[in-house]
Amino acid sequence: MLGRLRHTLSPPPPEQRSIELAGKPVTYTLKRSGKRRSIGLRIDDHGLTVSMPLRASEKWLHSVLNEKAAWVVEKLGSWQTRKTPAPQWIDGEHIPFRGETFTLRIIPSLFNSPPQLRGEQLHLHLTDICNGIKIEKLVTQWYRGEAERVFAECVAHYAPLMRVNPKQIKLSSARTQWGSCTSRGVVRLNWQLVKMPLHLIDYVVVHELAHLVEMNHSAAFWRVVESACPDHVQCRADLHKYGISE
Fold first, then answer.
1. Which residue has the higher pLDDT, 64 or 80?
2. What is the C-alpha to C-alpha distance for residues 68 and 38, in angstroms, rounded to an integer?
3. Do 228 and 151 sit in the same domain of this protein?
4. Which residues pair with 188 in a beta bridge?
């Protein structure tokens, strides 16, 4: 009996649903969880995700969605506006790096070689210049290598100023965070940050290093951030335009 009861209480798989909010059709992903006690809404590059308690009623769900209708429509609209199109991974494509735009040049060759930045161009020698999957893989590897170098330089500069000593710096591929910091001193920084302007990279590094002093977002935490990044308020606003939080 107990085994059957546990089985019936297991959460169902996510559902894809549609609803009209503020006069506009909205599709969303519904997730149910036995651990939740409230209904939560999240908007990211996957669209709207609604998380709700396992036994919550449809009436409660619709009430929350309609109450937040204006917010949902506005946020979804702003996400679509700032969402950048996916790269084509072809010769002549423009790619971002450290807040600037560079041109990807795919050069036919008898051998494959890692990308090399030359002036305002990123050169990539390939045997198969039409292999988009291979191009994306090599450029992503290049991005990650550059991210490690840039992050190491930033940490080496700011850590002594802030009197902190992170145990380890790791790359992250998180879809919803630019960075994180654990109580054990492990700082993770999203490799895609390397596409951002340098002052925003600095801000995220300072933000995460500040957590080594204050593991929260209290007034004391923001004072630590401000000591190393006086324009953190503007940096934070600029960073939010890219759609991911710190």
1. 64
2. 14
3. yes
4. 170, 180
